[in-house]
Amino acid sequence: MIKVVVVGAKGRMGSEVVKAVAAASDMELVGACDIVGVGEELPEAPGIFVERDLQAVLTRCKPNVMVDFAKPYNLDFTRLAMEHGVVPIIGTTGQTQEQLAEIEQLTELTGTAAMVIPNFAIGAVLMMKFAAQAAVYMPDVEIIELHHEKKVDAPSGTSIMTAQMIDAARKAADVKAVVPAGSPDDRARGDEKCGVRIHSVRLPGLVAHQEVIFGGLGQVLSIRHDSLDRTSFMPGVLLAIRRASQAKGLTYGLDKLL
Ligand SMILES: NC(=O)c1ccc[n+]([C@@H]2O[C@H](COP(=O)([O-])OP(=O)(O)OC[C@H]3O[C@@H](n4cnc5c(N)ncnc54)[C@H](O)[C@@H]3O)[C@@H](O)[C@H]2O)c1
Q1: pLDDT value at position 47?
Q2: Which residue minimizes the CA distance to atom 3 of ligand 1?
Q3: What is the pLDDT of residue 229?
């Protein structure tokens, strides 16, 4: 049995993870942390009560993995888990490059692996892979990412990762995008990561969506992924939990686990 602690367990993603872990026959939910609902028994996992003190939970429950969906991202949770020899599986988005570098360093210092997975949906991973493939042939590309209004970070972790993969593919193939006319500082042109423009939409009713639009001579290619429900992320979360015991160093992105 893989022992799992969920942080941010009362949140939208955290409560789905609690349900998915409780239903998995090879996993045992041993603890749940949040700052809301402290002391409450989780309806999805009878016998498990919400606690505030992560250190106490890790010491008492001795989990194998800690799934982190607490928002905003808190590097202290990652540090604490790794110091306890617990593999953090970080679903919360919004880490800076410096934080990612520090997590990688922590894997060396503690000898404990860590996973940062900006998108657990298999369809989103495929969208990113296909986008990287297409960028070799159609290097002119922009991203529109659309999320619910409660998302705090922009652009999304998925769009940044897509831009990184497109950038790496374009560089490896030695192809370059054209520089569009107009000022790059115009706010209407969106943000820019790795030479890719990203436009962020935030509206109630949305879950997590992304369209990668490639322009070519007389043609446009759109690759779109829609997470219609938070259950879309759960097979990826369970896969990461199952892979944690063999993981080494920092695993960034679900594609590394497929
Ligand atoms: N990786 C993925 O596939 C994926 C998919 C969807 C969302 N996300 C990301 O997951 C994160 C959570 O999203 P959400 O919609 O569930 O948010 P949410 O606001 O519904 O849940 C966040 C939870 O974290 C809790 N929290 C805040 N501070 C805490 C602390 N100090 N200790 C413990 N718990 C604390 C909150 O009380 C809340 O219950 C966001 O960063 C979002 O972008 C990632």
Answers
A1: 93
A2: 119
A3: 92
Predicted local distance difference test score (pLDDT) of residue 186: 95
* Calpha distance 108→24 (Å, rounded): 31
In whole angstroms, give the CA distance from residue 46 to residue 36. 17
Query: What confidence score (pLDDT) does residue 258 get?
Result: 87
- Residue nearest to ligand 1 atom 15, measured at CA: 12
Residue 67 Cα distances to 116, 229, 241, angstroms: 10, 19, 8
pLDDT given for residue 44 in this prediction = 86
Beta carbon of 8 within 6 Å of any ligand 1 atom: yes
Evaluate if pTM is beyond 0.70: yes
Neighbouring CB atoms inside 10 A of 184's CB total 9
Tell me, using a 6 A CB cutoff, whether residue 120 lines ligand 1: yes
For residue 11, the CA-to-ligand 1 centroid distance in Å is 6
- The hierarchical CATH code for the domain 122-227 is 3.30.360.10
Report domain extents, the chain: 2-116+231-257, 122-227
Q: Which CATH number fits domain 2-116+231-257: 3.40.605.10, 3.40.50.300, 3.40.50.720, 3.90.1700.10?
A: 3.40.50.720
Collect the ranges in the chain with pLDDT lower than 70: none
Spell out the residues 6+ positions from residue 102 whose beta carbon is closer than 8 angstroms to its own. Answer: 75
Q: Whose CA is nearest to atom 10 of ligand 1?
A: 92
